[in-house]
Amino acid sequence: MLLRFNVFTKISLLVLLLLIPVLSLYTYSNRESVRVIENEIQSGTTNRLSSFAAQVESNIYQLSLYGVSIGQDSSIQEYQRPDFREQPYERVKLSVAILEKMNLYNAASKWHSTITLFFPRTGDALSTDYYNTITYREDAFTRPFLKSWEYTGDSFVWYATEPTTAMSNPRSARLITKISFPINHVTAMLDENKVNNSGDPFLFNPEQGSIRNHSANAAKIDLLTEKLKSSKLGERGGFRTKLDNTEYYVSYIRSDSLKWYYVDYVPMQQILSPITNSRNLFYTSIAVLLVMSIAVIFVIYRSVQVPLLKLVRGTKRLSSGDFSVRLSHSGHNEFSLLLGRFNIMAQRIQELIENVYEEKLRRREATLKHLQSQINPHFLYNCLFYIKNMARMKNEKAVVAMALNLGEYFRYITRSENDGATIREELSMVTNYLEIQSLRLERMRFTIEVPDELMNKTISRLTLQPIVENAIVHGLEPQAENGEIRIRGYAEDGVYRLVVEDSGIGMTDEETQKLQLSLTKPLDDNMGCGTWNVHQRLIYLFGEGAGLSYSRSDLGGIKTTITWSDKTIE
């Protein structure tokens, strides 16, 4: 905890605490400014588009209103009388008067339009289009008329009937009025709107494409048209999108009369560039300040924190028992002197510890020799009593076998000063012992299953034999039926186990726990020294985790497990 809040950490935290509020406040202020400007951009674009749409709709409404009201004119009503066909001169005179009225309307209207009147009853047609001969054809009016304007590629067309109920069946109408105006009127208004404002307005229809002003950016409008086709558009609204890595705000309004959308778009970055430049300049200043702060912190870290951390780590290693630790130091400052004194102290402590450790090793070796020496007479006594009993029973074969086994045993423990033995050597001795016991107890059988990878592992001499002897004496001999001894070996992740199981009389759980507890107590007169010595020697040689453990066997008796780690002994 002290290391976390030293001077270096406090300085670093102070720098961060100074920068974080400044960055937070400026970022919040910048975002609010951008949000306000974006709202103004969106509101301004929508308002300009609404004004443009209102102008277009006003002109279209004026044309539509004339198409509806023209059928109420008295001269037109008179012209379509069937008996009027009998008076050619009057018909021509009246048609000229009707055309003059329609031309006067065109002159008064903002948009020049072409007005054509069809009279289904008489089969006549009158039109302000003097350059084309227009006649009435019944097959031209077979489908119902739409209530909106139709786009024909170069103009918008709208039909009205008298009566109005004949829109669904034009053949039943007394008069059909066709009004059309060229798209030049629309493009002219788009040009005017672009000159007066900063947008680039156009008309859009999902099926028929777009109508643009003459100076429109065709590439951007094509990209935007694709986005509009894939979007679900309402009556009016707006959205933000990216075109060529530039963000735009797009506003749209749907025309009820044309069924097209008025669309305008403005670049957000272009308007926000002053704020963006100011923000970038501020962040650059903060970055320079941060780099300078890091440089100062780095100098403090190299001069103070690094030597201090070395000293702390060295102290921790020294306290954990690593007395060989030495700290490297350079320079001629106060920390260099301190690290040099630390190395002298560590060297002196190591020399003292090594002396104490050597003395401890000598005592440990003497203890091991004493523990192992206790096992030899114990086994010898058992063998001599067995030979005596077999001699009384005139069992010469058992006497000879035991004598040979006893000779092999003393050859095994006296042939070398090495206290260690391989598992192969231990199993050879135990096999000889079990064969002799099989002669004595004809009802006993044994199996040994130890993997080859365990055979050359080293363990202290006479580790396995006392365990097998206890299994026979205390497990098999007290029961009348046949007995079995099973020895198996296991190796896993550097931990090795030898398991000795018997089918003897067994023990209760309480007795097993009591037997396990006795291995950790000092040796007394009421305790057998064989297994206790084995357990103590394993702990001395291989450390904590090694030793004997008892449990109940599936064979019915006791299972004794010998465990040790992946070490070798000399």
Automatic annotation (TrEMBL):
Pfam families: HAMP, HATPase_c, His_kinase. The lineage of its organism: Bacteria, Bacillati, Bacillota, Bacilli, Bacillales. It is found in: Cell membrane. GO terms for molecular function: kinase activity. Its main location: membrane. It comes from the Bacteria. This is Sensor histidine kinase YesM. Keywords: Cell membrane, Kinase, Membrane, Phosphoprotein, Transferase, Transmembrane, Transmembrane helix. It is a multi-pass membrane protein. The chain crosses the membrane at residues 281-301.
